[in-house]
Amino acid sequence: MSQKDTLGQELSRRGISRRALLKFAAAAATSLALPPSFAPAIAEELSKARRQSLIWLSFQDCTGCLEALTRSEAPGIERLIFDFVSLDYQETLMAAAGTAAEDVLKAVAQENRGNYLLAVDGSVPVADNGVYSMIGGRSPMAILSELAEGAAAVLAIGTCAAYGGIPKAAPNPTGAAGIGALVGGKPVVNIPGCPPIPEVLTGVLVNFLTFGKLPDLDAQGRPLAYFGTTIHDQCYRRPYYDQGKFAKSFDDAGARQGWCLFELGCKGPTTHNACASLKWNGGTSFPIQSGHGCLGCSEPDFWDKGSFYTSLSGGEGPPWGAVAGAAAGGVAIGGAAAFAARRARASVERQLAQEWKAQEDEA
Amino acid sequence: MQSDDPFLQALLAELRMLLAQLLESGESGQIDLLRLPMAPAQTEALRALLGQGEIVITLEAEGPSRIEETRLSGVWWVEHHDRAGHLVARLLEVAAVPEIVPAAAPDIGASLGVLSGEDAGKAET
Ligand code: SF4
Ligand code: SF4
């Protein structure tokens, strides 16, 4: 496809129908926590958009993020996003290698200067002049600075790129750091998770293509639509937490009845991510639904926060006084908690709706 | 229609509001069920509660979709799947006909173009 064509022209040439685009937009609206009534407008804006150039760099990573993103919905509707972006450089996926690949990178960065999105997975080793991860004889920091300078924005994909992740775990021998700590003067969106939820990247790209800007972020640089609430806020086991019903081991009667996993180390109460609502593997399930607590993988330094199996209160369960009070309220409190979560989500929706309207008024 | 679950009660109240709005102003409404913190059993309970109406529509566009009228006329249970069969959207849509179903003007125009082209071809021969 020529980058001058609109996506609508390209899709209809390829026999992708208006209804397929509407379906994609409905899925994107769900994922962005936008009201579903926005789907037709998203479809309309996407069909008017032009293909977006994306340059993807990998530094100190395990390639798990890329695996999660490219394998997840490979044959699914999410794959349409790959029609909306032109992935111009990704060393694991591209056929070219060595100097040929480096030449492609130079040419693409030059041609799309100021307009390309720069995605990065993996952390950047800054100790000892970056010798721990040299690429083509250059340090990751040198490559990052040069390409971030010409980018419209930078997407830090995965917890390693966002906050340093596992390479940064104590004692951090390579001086690993996240992108946001190293790149100045450019908007950086953190999409943490180990790995990140694929739909979040799709949502950020759809947001960029339809609104022409990046989504609103929380204090940790994460899109509010996905990271605005905790796993605990959205967890379907929450009524059990509120009633003080906790599994004490992975195979006790409580575990079998689906009770709360707090005492088994669940970090849901302090972890911001969308696993409990978007879920994994095409909405199949998420760790807590499969019987294991949240590890807190989308938070900075999750690897250094003690055992995954120690509860947040140090192994002794939640503050029992408060739980006893909540238990007396029973199901009603569970319902109230669910609605508190919904209210938080509704405020994000309202904010996005306002942005959308402002955008339309400007146009 | 009643439920003991306060969460489902609230959803029914929202449906009531959307139906009233549809009657008064003709404006349709949707509830995004995938983004609500519902246990799988709650989703099943809601589906059972709403029951089955007279119409079931299947749609094949980059994967199957199933659009079912519920026992409440004007309330539709919509599920979109991708080609791998994964669920990508689950909505309750309150409308006379869900938005994705009717043919759109540009597509109807394209059909007209196809037939007009055929007619022109025949006239030439
Ligand atoms: S502690 Fe974990 S399992 Fe329990 S309600 Fe919170 S997120 Fe769910
Ligand atoms: S449930 Fe927790 S540990 Fe698991 S993927 Fe989600 S945020 Fe990460």
Automatic annotation (TrEMBL), chain A:
Residues 227-308 form the Cytochrome-c3 hydrogenase C-terminal domain. It is found in: Cell envelope. Keywords: 3Fe-4S, 4Fe-4S, Cell membrane, Iron, Iron-sulfur, Membrane, Metal-binding, Oxidoreductase, Signal, Transmembrane, Transmembrane helix. The keyword 4Fe-4S applies. GO terms for cellular component: [Ni-Fe] hydrogenase complex; cell envelope; ferredoxin hydrogenase complex; membrane. GO terms for biological process: anaerobic respiration. Residues 62-207 form the NADH:ubiquinone oxidoreductase-like 20kDa subunit domain. Its cofactor is [3Fe-4S] cluster; [4Fe-4S] cluster. [4Fe-4S] cluster 1 binds at C62, C65, C160, C194. Its EC number is 1.12.99.6. Gene3D superfamilies: Cytochrome-c3 hydrogenase, C-terminal domain, NADH:ubiquinone oxidoreductase-like, 20kDa subunit. InterPro entries: Cytochrome-c3_hydrogenase_C, NADH_UbQ_OxRdtase-like_20kDa, NiFe-Hase_small_C_sf, NiFe_Hase_small_N_sf, NiFe_hydrogenase_ssu, TAT_signal. The chain crosses the membrane at residues 320-341. [4Fe-4S] cluster 2 binds at H232, C235, C260, C266. GO terms for molecular function: 3 iron, 4 sulfur cluster binding; 4 iron, 4 sulfur cluster binding; electron transfer activity; ferredoxin hydrogenase activity; hydrogenase (acceptor) activity; metal ion binding. PANTHER family: HYDROGENASE-2 SMALL CHAIN, NIFE / NIFESE HYDROGENASE SMALL SUBUNIT FAMILY MEMBER. Heterodimer of a large and a small subunit. Belongs to the [NiFe]/[NiFeSe] hydrogenase small subunit family. This is hydrogenase (acceptor).
TrEMBL record, chain B:
It comes from the Bacteria. Residues 9-114 form the HupH hydrogenase expression protein C-terminal domain. Belongs to the HupH/HyaF family. This is Hydrogenase expression/formation protein. It holds the Pfam family HupH_C. Gene3D superfamilies: HupH hydrogenase expression protein, C-terminal domain (3.30.1370.140). The lineage of its organism: Bacteria, Pseudomonadati, Pseudomonadota, Alphaproteobacteria, Rhodobacterales.
